Structures are given as structure tokens and as C-alpha cells.
Amino acid sequence: MKSKKRKKIVTALLLLILLGCGSKSDSSGVSFVSIDVSPPSPSIISFPYTQQFTAIARDSSGNGVSGVVFTWSDSGPASCIDQKTGLASAKQTFGTDTITATAGNIAGSTPLFINIQGSPPPPPPPNCL
Fold this sequence. Notes:
By secondary structure, the protein is mainly beta. It has one helix and twelve strands. A hairpin with a 2-residue loop joins strand 11 and strand 12 (about 105-115). The chain is elongated, with a radius of gyration of 21 Å. The termini are far apart.
């Protein structure tokens, strides 16, 4: 009798451990496995010299997960991004950067292409890093 009960407990514990593997959560405790950044591969070519990015956290079934807070970053000198809003601004007339949304220890990225003809972009806003 004790053997069956012990077996059920061990099975339940193993199931809980396996369900917890492979997903991460941000500080709010929401579980997700990936982050999609949109739009994919955008270009900044003219006024207003900005691109708004959005992100969606996805669970293991590919469903969108709400309540995730993202931190935004960029990879290089051609653009800068507001860490809270995901609004990127061109800093140069030509270049490619990678835009990344991060939550917890999971990140999603997309390239940003900048090719502005004519006048250079104005200085980026002060909240743009």
C-alpha cells in the first residue's frame, strides 16, 4: 500500500519538474519560451526617422502571453532605442543594427536597416540610448 502511494508521489513530483523545464518567466512570474519582435526587418528611409517596435512573449504552444514587460536595446551606432517604449531613432544616414526585446533571460531580435537619402536625421531624443 505504501509503495503505491510513494510511486504516485514520485510520479507527481517528476511531472511537476518536467512541466517547469524549458520555460522562463520574467519578474512577474509569467511563463514563456520565446519572444517575437515586430516588424521583422524594417527600414528607416525617411522622416520621421523612427520605427516603433513591439514584442510578444509566446508559450510552448506558440500562444501569446500577456503581462510580460520588455526592455529594449540596440546593437550599434546607427540607431538608438527607448528602453521602455521600443521606439528606435536613426542616428546615422546608413547602417544596420539589431533591435532586441528582453524579458527575464529570454530575448528576441530583428535587424533594423537605415538608408536615409538627402538630409541627415536630427539628433535623437534624450531618452534614446
